[in-house]
Amino acid sequence: MSDCTVVCEGLRKVFAGADGRPFDAVHDLTFSLKRGTISALVGPDGAGKTTLMRMVSGLLKPDGGSLEVLGTDVAADPQAVQNRISYMPQRFGLYEDLSVQENLDLYADLHGVPQEVRAERFRRMLEMTDMARFTARAAGNLSGGMKQKLGLACTLVRVPDLLLLDEPSVGVDPLSRRDLWEIIEQLIASDGLSVLVSTAYMDEAGRCDDVLVMDHGRLLAQDRPQAITARAAGLTYRVTPEPGTPARDLQARLIDAPERVVDAVPRGGAVRFIRQSDCPADGMADLLQGRPVEPRGEELEDAFMLLLRQHDAPKPNAPRDAAIPEIRLAAKEDAAGEAVIHVRDLVRRFGDFTAVANTSFDVRRGEIFGLLGPNGAGKTTTFRMLCGLLPATSGTLEVAGVNLRRARSEARRKIGYVAQKFSLYANLTVRENLEFFGGAYGLRGTVLKQRVHAILDQFGLDGAAASGALPHGYKQRLAMAAGLVHAPEILFLDEPTSGIDPLARRAFWRTITSLSQSGVTVIVTTHFMEEAEYCDRIAIQDAGRMLALGTPRQVREQAGGESVDDMNQAFIAIVEQGRVKGRSAA
Amino acid sequence: MDRESGRALPPMLASVLGWLGEVAFLFRKEVLALFKDPANRIILFAPAFIQTLLFGYGAILDLQHVPYAVLDQSRGQAASELIARLDGTGVFTRQATLVSANQIAPLIDRQKVLMAVTIPADFDRKLASGGNGEVQVVFDGRNSTTAGAAASYVSAVVRALNASRSGGQGVAVVRRAWFNPNLESRWQIMPAMIATLSMLQTMLLAALSVAREREQGTFDQLLVTPMTPLQILVGKALPSIVVGLLQSTIVMLIVLLWFRIPMSGSPFLLYFGLLCFNIAAVGIGMTLSAFALNMQQAMLYSFVLIMPLTLLSGLLTPIRNMPLVLQYATYVNPLRFGVAIVRRVYLEGAGLGEIAINFVPLLAVAAVTLPLSAWLFRHRLS
């Protein structure tokens, strides 16, 4: 077995759950990884990917089974293994007050890299990461994508026998993600690295030699990406919605029929879906309502969703998968089409740095409006100004007909806000949280009681449960419920899907579709470009400027090129065009 | 409760009620969050209880059981009487009866005794012949406070001896200490603890309140509600003030019922003073909290402040002994005026008119810190 880097048999790890009961974070894993290959570890949240990574790197002791890394039993001699591997955890420990160069020096010292090879190695890493210009800058002042690249450079100050990367691209925009993978692939080609990388992106997994699909601590499949993709052969279709209706309405109808449809997502103005293999190809005429259907080529993501659904089927109570019931809110439907958010020449400066420059757009009632952009593009600043968390430097900003710069309190009454990470009071119960936010928005007495009761029902929440101990999916539902308890006209969602898995993302967007159908306007920021397909209109920002504004189709057309279907490509093209224009103008 | 079904209220009153209602929701949330945690329930009250007892027994400046040595070379009747009087005060405990002067130094060096009294061989003879007898006392000056206090006790004993020998002739001082008849330092310290001990925790509590929410990300969620900074300020400051008053009550009950120090003044005035004092202390805490980016910073700022606040409060050391600059600095210290109000009301029974001047700096501190913290809520950018 000397041609293998990792060999494990019957590997187990037990943790205590949120409810105090032990559960298997990793359950009976048996697999091996070949030397000189790059293997992807994919799976939803809580699948056990990080636990496995930490066991391979000798940071966690297995509770059962055997685990050999580079020919050594990790549990017996973790140091011997750690001397030969490099591990980049999800949050890499950069020293934010040290400069880029000092961070590199420090990690070279820690790993005992000899002085004579350092200069050459640093030069190469800085060149690959395109950071040679920034060596003097403090790591804390780098953007999210740059930090991740520096983390990778620090991990690779020496050439390891095995490289472990735990979700290196999480929270990183498509441009930085592409750069990151170019670096990894160059290193594999030049240094013959063996890599195990966990990822939430199927396009990344598709680039690897070997894919391991995990869920609930179990290994569902291990194979070449092409072989895994083939599992969805013959089950994949594309359907075009009725002109003038958003693709997400048709998508919602399809995903609500899980006994016939494995998965459905809007893509390129159409809806892609996967048929359940036991459902006849012509058995869903009522769902499609005569819209034109054509078969399409299967992709890795299709096979992944198929595997997850098959595996999940025996456990219908799995929290993240339970569909959220139809949401009905008392929003005005008569005034559809009228602008509820009106932004003109909005500017925000921090000192002499312009975070948002001359931005203008409108959002109409009932629209789902997406704010997209790379890390540090100004979308968070724009978002915070829209919901009144940050005063604008200049410009006009009207929300629900109220000038946000003058009557902020009044404008805030009409909006709901869901923060990026769970930010409700963890030691209060679900009901207490909802009652507090209802009260803060001016609901009183019986009205408040009814609203809290209704929203608990709608989101399938238990009022007496402690908020802090809820599973992740339920926490997000509670956050949404708290943002909706006062029946706002506009809902702001800040990166609601960052760090959640594909299944939970679909459940989340299903809820958003319902909200929009009931007349609520939704403003959402996201890193996942394919989620732009759920939006009526999107705005792409970079370096504080608005680069594109329109429907997903218009934005794809603006990007040009042959990749009309792929929002990721369109995004990268638009940002790059924008940067070229910005440079030639300067 | 149900405003919809009730009679229509005048718009002004309705908006005031709505305003207060939102504050009440925040207040309720704060109190729930505070008391839901079993650890908090203990931390908020047990330390006040334990610290009061600790200060009551530990922080006593009165001398008791001072170890001393005596070298009686006279062995006369007057010398014996002096020694008997020293032993009889209850302040001094004789550790050693020496026979030679070179025994003194080792005893003091090794801190076996605090003072050594030497009665020379000619003491009785001089007194008998109508002259002045001299007694030499060596003190351990390493602790000047204790040495000074012991010296004054010895002088008092000698004065008493003189008076009895002269048959009551001469000038005698009749002492009467007002408000603290036995001049017990416990009487001086313990009522002041009613303000001091509660301040330590209310300030910290206020300092953590906003910082905790900033750290956990809930503060943004709070800022996007229609609540104004003033409402958030009131809703967040009130629980800290209430906890502060509860703590003061615990300390006061122990001082009154356990240490049996009688209260001369009006409890209403006392509580009014404590309320104003707490508002000022919470104002400082809220400002630290609004300024801090996380709980660690808020905690650090509070601990850095608490030491000088306590030192410059006049709690243990008289303010008029301090350099002029420091005396001016005490004017922004709410604890100085809190201690003054509590002492004067509790021990002296002072009325509002007599202590009114102390409220001015307290309210001034509150008038600056509270609006400042409300402004910082929205303008402190992370």
Automatic annotation (TrEMBL), chain A:
- List, alphabetically, the Gene3D superfamilies matched: P-loop containing nucleotide triphosphate hydrolases (3.40.50.300)
One of the entry's Gene Ontology molecular-function terms is: ATP binding
The segment(s) forming the ABC transporter domain are 6-241, 341-568
Q: Does the keyword Magnesium apply?
A: no
**UniProtKB keywords:** ATP-binding, Nucleotide-binding
The keyword Transcription regulation appears for this protein: no
UniProt xrefs under InterPro entries: AAA+_ATPase (IPR003593), ABC_transporter-like_ATP-bd (IPR003439), ABC_transporter-like_CS (IPR017871), P-loop_NTPase (IPR027417)
Q: Which Pfam families match?
A: ABC_tran (PF00005)
Q: Which PROSITE patterns match?
A: ABC_TRANSPORTER_1, ABC_TRANSPORTER_2
Protein name in the entry: ATP-binding cassette domain-containing protein
* Species of the source: Novosphingobium clariflavum
Source organism lineage?
Answer: Bacteria, Pseudomonadati, Pseudomonadota, Alphaproteobacteria, Sphingomonadales
Automatic annotation (TrEMBL), chain B:
Compartments (UniProt record): Cell membrane
A Pfam family that the UniProt record links to this protein: ABC2_membrane_3
Q: Does the keyword Transmembrane helix apply?
A: yes
Q: What keyword terms does UniProt attach to this protein?
A: Cell membrane, Membrane, Transmembrane, Transmembrane helix, Transport
* Name of the featured protein: ABC transporter permease
Q: Tell me which positions the record assigns to the signal sequence.
A: none
What Gene3D superfamilies would the database entry show?
abc type-2 transporter like domain (3.40.1710.10)
Q: Where is the ABC transmembrane type-2 domain?
A: 151-380
Q: How does it sit in the membrane?
A: Multi-pass membrane protein
**Cross-referenced InterPro entries, in alphabetical order?**
ABC-2_transporter_component, ABC2_TM, ABC2_TM_bact-type
Keyword Transmembrane helix, does the record have it?
yes
Give the family, as the similarity comment puts it: Belongs to the ABC-2 integral membrane protein family.
User: So which domain of life are we looking at?
Assistant: Bacteria
Which segments cross the bilayer?
A: 6-27, 39-60, 189-211, 232-259, 271-293, 300-319, 355-377
Q: Which species is this record about?
A: Novosphingobium clariflavum
